[in-house]
Amino acid sequence: MKPRERVILALKHEEPDRVPIDLGATWVSGIHAKAYYELRKYLSLPEKPPKIVDVGQQLAEVDKDILELLHIDVINISRVLEPMAPYPHTYRFTSVDGFLKEVSEYEFWVWKAPYGIDVEMPKYVEVIECEDGFIGYAEGRPFGKISKAGYYFWGLKHVLADVRAVEDLEKFDWDVGKVSDNIIEVLKKKAEYLFKNTDYALVNPFMGSPVALGAFRGLHAGGQTLRGWGRWFVDLRSRKSLANAILDRILEVMLYNIKKIIDAIGEYVQVQVIAYDDMGIETGPQISVEVFREFYKHRYEEIINYVKKHSKVFTFLHSDGSIFPLIKEFIDIGLDIINPVQISAKGMEPEKLKKTYGDQITFWGGGADNQHILPFVKPEELNEHVKNLIRIFAPRGGFIFANIHNIQPGIPPENIVAMFKTVYEYGRYPIK
Question: Strand 399-400 to strand 314-318: parallel, antiparallel, or no bridges (unpaired)?
């Protein structure tokens, strides 16, 4: 069975020949550059600086040799390594030092990362050393800071932190989050090329302007990014008119982008990420079901309805943590896929998830407990852990195997290999 057919059957809650496998198709199912470097070294593959495809999280692009070794079924349409489309987007911007620059997204430069290896950074990104770390700039705009012993870039400021009234929102450039026609044109060419020239299932994890994605990656996360966590929770409780005004503007940008994207690539891709929107913590949801219904549910329904009405694309939403009470709310509005399925969080027991919602939503993730098991146990123990999760999640389809969120530095490469080897060998239907 071809990978694309395998993934589509699973998403339709049917059983393909084996459980489909993902590594690197989204920015929440990838692998950190340090872990990827160690993995290639362990496998005795040619050593080279990992290419960074998510600058903030320092995620590495997965090479074709790893895709084939680990039997990966699904890829991102904006890959920068083979298999890739020969249609790069061109960035034009004013650099930090004031020069006009024009660079392809397939152009990279080597940076000595603070976590001890050389990586290849996109040329539209500049990194400037400061007293206690490095400031990152995308297309000339600061986006984050990494410490001199760090592994990730963290956001710099909450641009709407000082807003007090709805009228103040007009001062913010909301259009900065809207995707350009040039990017849409390139995305369409990429999706069509990979659809016609590969057998992989195709995912589009891209949602809008890379320089402003944090503010528009999700409704709840967008509010937190723009206002700050504490202020945003106060807004939801005590400044509802301001919260609704901010959400309306975030939704406007998200809808603008999803309409452009789906209209361009909906006939080629199988999965579209509609949000990266963490609504849970370890012990429960960040918000109540009532708050979700008041502020978020109808807005997400608009986004999902557009995708459903104008394509056959499956919708994918990422939300970390303990979100069991919210899953039904997403099912009600037609969401197809939930990720990363954080089984170590309270109330997210695999058996309960599958029994309650396994026939109504696809679990993309949940492949191994990455907090307590994957980094610490021997491969033999990990094998049994992964087999047990397959036994729970795989029957009747509705399961795409992936690590729970990105594979982090410090996870033994032998465990990474064991995890993917187990799902490939054991995840064949009928599951025993």
Answer: unpaired
The CA distance from 377 to 360, in Å, is 33
| 3-state secondary structure (DSSP) of residue 132 | coil
> Which residue in the block uniquely carries the two structure tokens 């005795």?
44
Per residue in 53-72, pLDDT (tens digit) is 999 999 999 999 999 999 99
Give domain limits for the chain: 3-46+61-88+159-426
Give the pLDDT of residue 375: 98
CA distance 394 to 391: 6
Q: In this predicted model, what pLDDT tens digit does every residue of 81-105 receive, in sequence order?
A: 999 999 999 999 999 999 999 999 9
Strands 201-204 and 271-276: parallel
State the CB neighbour count (10 A cutoff) for residue 346: 15
Return the half-sphere exposure (C-beta side, CA atoms, 13 A cut-off) of residue 219: 25
- Fold for domain 3-46+61-88+159-426? TIM Barrel (3.20.20)
State pTM to two decimals.
0.97
Alpha-carbon span 198 to 77, nearest angstrom: 11
Q: Is the pLDDT of residue 214 over 80?
A: no
Tens of pLDDT, residues 24-45: 999 999 999 999 999 999 999 9
